[in-house]
Every structure is written in C-alpha cells, then in structure tokens.
C-alpha cells in the first residue's frame, strides 16, 4: 500500500485557541466521523457494517463487498474512509465495523512487527497465528497491490529485462525513483541489493514524495530515471505501457487483498460471499476498478463497485 505522505510542521497556537478550534470543528463536523454510530455487533449475523481505509482502492473494494453481501440477504451499512490501519483495526476490534478489505503482508507486519516472511503461503500461515481472538480473515484474493520495480517498455527491450535480477547487471547505469524512505526500508534499496545484487548509489536515487504517483511516472516516462517503485494496481502501468519486473525471490511482501472481520461477525454465509468476490478479484481486476475510479471517467467508488459486481454476476445470490 502506498506510504502516507509526509506531514508539514504543525503551527503552534495558544492552548485556549486550540481547544476552541477543536470544539468548533467537532460541532461543525457533526456526523462526518466515519465511525459515528455503534455498528452492528449484535447477535444477528445478517447485519454487517463494511468499512474501508481512506484511499480509493480500499473504498471501492469495500463497496464491492457491500454490494455482494446485500445481494445475498445481508443488511449492510458502510463506513468508508476510516483512516489508516492504526484507526480501522481498533474499530474492528471494538465492532464499530464488521469487515473491511486489507492487505496480507502489511496486516501481518502491523500485527507482528517481527515478522519477516514475504511469500504468499508463509504470510497466510503467519497471519493466521497473529490475528488473535478478536480478528478473523476469509480467503485472500489472488489480486495484490504491492510495491514493484517498474521500467518503460523501451528500457525492458533494450536491456532484455524480465525480472529484477536482470536489472542488476546494469546497476552502474540505473537511476531509480521512489519515496525517500525507499532508500532505508528493508525491502527498498537495501533489500534489492541483498536479494538481487541491484546496487543503486545515493547519487543515482531520485526521491519523489508521491508514493509512485504521477510525478514518479513522469520521471520514468521522460527518461529522468530508468526504474521506479510503483504499485502493482496503478492505472498508470497500462496507460503508459510500463513493465513490472518479476520478483521471484520475494523481496517485496505479498499484499493480497483479504477480507478482515471482527471475529464475532464472521459467519459461514458472509465468508462464502466474500470468498466468491475474492476468487474473481485478480490484480488485473483491481487495476480495472482503479482505472474506473481514478482514471479519466472518475467514477464514484460505489458506482464502479455496482458495475463490477453486476459484470461478474456477484449481484445475485451465490449457490
């Protein structure tokens, strides 16, 4: 998942002014709090509250969950845009939310900061042991939103690139773009060096603080850099005919989309419905949903989800 943008320094204000401003803001916001209300932590397994993190892909997948669950007789409320994992995991534990989409690798590292596994099967096994009594998951989707080393088609053809290992032979020539933190992250430049012997010197790294977004893509397509850290479900990949280099040694953790439940709200029927969704939620399908929401058409997440569930026959009861 994309890293959070850096925050600007917070200006200092007198304490009284801050208290007044906070009180006024809370009054003005009213019900804008995505966690307003009690959720549905009653004994009725057919009443669910579907939440999401605060970025478009999470909101869209949450709306897909909601559409499929409603089609199967569930009474569903939605609470989009809750925030980061630090906000929505406690909300799940407290049952303000019943279920939401998460990502296996990052969820594991949140629950167990000492976890070091990165391949799909190992992450799934470790995650099962890290959830504790309050959380539960359904079957992860094959679709992932993970970091990737990306090059242009011209660069891939010129250097005969298929995997990150192929790029290592050109270490002395490669200029690389990514978030500034990528220089220090274990799966960033240090991981690429250790895993693939791809060595990027400090002078050949171009820090761009948009999490693999438009500025990073422009740096790549304009030739300012030769490779970049871009996420696998970015619509810019297809739009610019960019090439994702294979990561056979799993430098980057698998990030399969997974339904994350409050354990008390996970029923066999809800699990079956969301497993049916996950079975069709490939990386290509995540790309298609992101293109609908973040591409030229700027479709609202709920509308994109409704169209997707209909196209995949998930707007009707499953078997």
Automatic annotation (TrEMBL):
Organism field: Nocardia stercoris
Signal peptide per UniProt: 1-30
GO molecular function per UniProt: transmembrane transporter activity
Domain of life: Bacteria
Any GO CC annotation of this UniProt entry: ATP-binding cassette (ABC) transporter complex
Keywords: Signal
Residue intervals of the ABC-type glycine betaine transport system substrate-binding domain: 47-310
Descriptive protein name: ABC transporter substrate-binding protein
Listed SUPFAM superfamilies: Periplasmic binding protein-like II (SSF53850)
């Amino acid at each position: 998942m994309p890293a959070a943008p850096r925050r600007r320094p917070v200006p200092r204000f007198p304490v009284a002014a801050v208290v007044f401003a906070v009180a006024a803001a809370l009054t003005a916001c009213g019900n804008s709090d995505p966690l307003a209300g009690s959720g549905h932590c009653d004994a009725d397994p057919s009443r669910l509250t579907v939440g999401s993190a605060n970025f478009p892909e999470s909101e869209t997948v949450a709306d897909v969950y909601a559409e499929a669950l409603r089609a199967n007789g569930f009474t569903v409320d939605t609470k989009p845009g809750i925030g980061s994992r630090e906000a929505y995991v406690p909300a799940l534990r407290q049952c303000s939310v019943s279920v939401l989409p998460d990502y296996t690798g990052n969820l594991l590292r949140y629950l167990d900061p000492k976890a070091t596994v990165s391949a799909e099967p190992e992450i799934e096994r470790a995650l099962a042991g890290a959830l504790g009594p309050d959380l539960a998951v359904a079957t992860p989707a094959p679709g992932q939103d993970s970091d990737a080393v990306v090059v242009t088609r011209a660069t891939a053809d010129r250097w005969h690139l298929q995997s990150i290992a192929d790029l290592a032979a050109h270490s002395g020539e490669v200029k690389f773009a990514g978030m500034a933190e990528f220089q220090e992250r274990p799966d960033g430049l240090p991981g690429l060096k250790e895993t693939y012997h791809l060595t990027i010197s400090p002078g050949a790294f171009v820090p761009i603080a948009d999490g693999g977004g438009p500025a990073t893509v422009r740096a790549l397509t304009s030739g300012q850099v030769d490779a970049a850290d871009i996420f696998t479900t970015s619509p810019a990949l297809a739009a610019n005919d960019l090439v994702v280099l294979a990561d056979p040694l799993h430098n980057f953790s698998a990030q399969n989309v997974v339904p994350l439940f409050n354990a008390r709200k996970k029923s066999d029927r809800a699990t079956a419905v969301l497993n049916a969704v996950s079975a069709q939620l490939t990386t290509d399908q995540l790309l298609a949903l992101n293109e609908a929401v973040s591409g030229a058409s700027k479709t609202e997440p709920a509308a994109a989800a409704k169209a997707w569930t209909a196209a995949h026959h998930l707007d009707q009861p499953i078997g």
